[in-house]
């Protein structure tokens, strides 16, 4: 009996560790007083709904949480882009964001949180199809004065 309980406890601990490893948290980086817990990455298929559950933890703040979502690339939001959430008695709010991708690729769901204390942002990688998220190459040039400058790629989105 003790051996079975011990094996069950070890298996449960491994499952919990695996689940925690697959989430990203804004703990320690939040200026809003809200910890954002979300999957570290999300996978989906083209032309199919992609759902992301996000938990908001408010340890010492009793007000509303204003949340807005923005997508990049071929991702489009199917759920509201702005929400006002009210934490439960444990200081936790949950929201599920639904997106749809028009084509395969790698992009981000950007989460913006604002409270009376401040704001913060979290980006969640979303991979649709078999695409992988690869950093784009940078290039190095020298100015006429000989100063080395690294050019990094950027994407501008106009809404």
From TrEMBL:
Residues 1-21 form the signal peptide. Keywords: Signal. It comes from the Bacteria. This is DUF2808 domain-containing protein.
């Amino acid at each position: 009996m003790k051996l079975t309980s011990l094996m069950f406890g070890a298996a449960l601990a491994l499952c919990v560790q695996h689940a925690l490893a697959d989430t990203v948290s804004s703990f320690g980086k939040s200026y809003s007083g809200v910890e954002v817990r979300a999957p570290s990455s999300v996978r989906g298929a083209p032309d199919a709904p992609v759902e992301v559950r996000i938990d908001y933890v408010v340890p010492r703040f009793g007000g509303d949480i204003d949340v807005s979502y923005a997508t990049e690339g071929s991702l489009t939001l199917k759920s509201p882009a702005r929400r006002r959430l009210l934490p439960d008695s444990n200081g936790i709010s949950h929201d599920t964001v639904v997106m749809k991708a028009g084509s395969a690729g790698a992009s981000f769901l950007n989460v913006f949180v604002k409270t009376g204390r401040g704001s913060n942002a979290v980006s969640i990688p979303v991979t649709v199809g078999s695409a992988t998220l690869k950093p784009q190459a940078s290039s190095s040039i020298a100015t006429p004065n000989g100063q080395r400058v690294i050019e990094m790629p950027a994407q501008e989105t106009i809404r």
